[in-house]
Amino acid sequence: MSKFRSLSMKIIATVFTLVAFVFIADTLLNQSISSSVYESTEALSEQMRSVVSQKDAQIQKLLNGLLDSKAENQHVNHALASHELKAVSERKQAYLDGERYGISMSVASLVRASMLSGEAETALDQIDTLLENDQIAAINIWRDSGELAFRDNKTIEAVNRFIDAEVYEPRDAEKAVTIPSNRMKTLKQALSKNSNHESLEAEIKDEDGNTIPIAYSYFILKNDEDCQSCHDPAQPVRGILEVAVPNEELLVLRAKSEQQIGQLTKTLEAEQASLVAQSEQQKADAEAQTRDYNATMSAAKAELDSTRETASWMGLGSKIAFFLLTIGLLMVALSRVLTRPLRNLTSAMLRIAEDDLTVEANGVNRQDEIGAMSRAVSIFKDNAAARRKLEQESKEHIEQQLKRQETIDALFADFRSKIQQSLETVSTHASTMQASAVALNNISSATSEQARSADEASASSAESVQTMAAASTEMTASIAEIGEQVVRTNDLVSAATDEARETDKKVAGLASAAEHIGEVISLIRDIAEQTNLLALNATIEAARAGETGKGFAVVAAEVKNLAHQTGQATKDIETRIQAIQRSSTDSMEAIRAIATKMGEISEFTTAISAAVHEQNASTSEISHNIHEAADRTQDIVGNISGVAQSAEQTMQSSHEVESASRTVADVAHDMRNVIDDFLQKVAAA
Fold first, then answer.
1. Cα–Cα distance between 358 and 356 in angstroms, integer?
2. Average pLDDT taken over every residue of the chain
3. Can you give the pTM of this predicted structure?
């Protein structure tokens, strides 16, 4: 074992020695270079940090203080000027709002006083008078639904309905006008808040087509106690007054304020731009100083970079040299101790794989892995030779077994073919015989069934013929009776026709009387309507008379109530008279239809009587022929009974043949199964 030297250990020892040498040399060189670079870098870094830190602190402090103070001063001045301008605009806004509210209150008071007089035209005239004032651009009265008032008769109808009298005459209706959506929104806000301080800025056009800025104010016209004598207390709001006041002065003031605020904003922006410019200049000065510092540091950095580059090239050159030397030595060593012997072994193994057993392995006497592999190749060659011999012997044995098996298979195939042919012949004949027996059985069954059916049909036919003979005799007697009944029916129909005509005349008289009653009812209804109109006029006159007409108003109300009851009773009587008239008309039409049908029935009964006499003669002849057919049917019944007995005997014989053929088929099937099982067992053995 002392002479045994491992190839792996040789390679590991060589590589380890080379790597250790390179590592020690590289470490010593890098340590020397790193020490010099580290000292220079530390000195330069300390100098740079100190200079930049001082400069940045001074610049930041100076710029922050200057920017903060100037920006705060500018914002304060701008805010003061803006507040002063807004205060002037707000004071003017408050003055105009008060003026607009005062005008709206005055207009609402005047319109409300005019409407309390009960005359809508007076209110409209008052609105037209107010519109002559230059401080009022428009006045509208809207319903809470958004419709313009005084253009239809909805309010007049509601008032007349509430006081239950036609006090106010309807006006000529005009096209409905609806408030625009933006103004409708403000109107709804006023109603929901129950506020008289809602307003909306808008524009209108004057008669010359010029646009005028205005402000709409909304005042709610409530249904006070003074108004509830004519208006339903359940409706809290009578309408919404809309007053438009010119708003041009306020808009001019707002525009002027906005212009001044814009000028202030521009001034602030200019000052801020100047401040930014100054700050940028200061930053530029600081940057120039920084560039000087950077130049100094760049010079020091250039010297440092030069030192680092020199050290880097020295380290890289030494590493490359050591690497190339190591690779060269390793390649030489591996080629001599490993590569060449492995190539020889690879060639020998490929030749053995190609079944060339004349090859000889080199290096069998070596004491390392190459020697062990060479000896293993020699063993593979010996095993391959032994395997070749065994394969040849096995091949010859298999060929002998195949020849023997082919002979046995041929014998079994011939036996199977012949026995299968015999069994198929037996099975075919048995199936044919069974099918013939089944067909014979079916024919016998059908013949027997037909014979029984014919027997039953013949018997039934004989009975039917006898029955028909008896029925024909009875039918002859019945037809004679029918002739007599038809004559009596014709007499009854003639009498019923006369009664229907008489009833028609009576119903016509009833309809005429109902028409006279309807004329009387129409006269009573006209009198009731006249009485109702007189009572309504009396109620209006009593309302105008005041306290002195209350007694007369009570009497007028009673007369009106009596006229109303009379009208209702008249309508009820008229409805019933109309129902009687409709019933009379329907009865007349039904009676006339009955009389017509009676005439048709009389004609039909006459025709039936003639047909009955003809049928009586025909029935007598049919009865004679049926008696002769009954005698011949008895002979047919006797012949069919003999056929039925023969069919029963044939069907019994076919059953016996079918049973025998089924037994033969079963035996052939069992024999086939036994032979197949025997052949399978022999083939498996």
1. 6
2. 68
3. 0.30
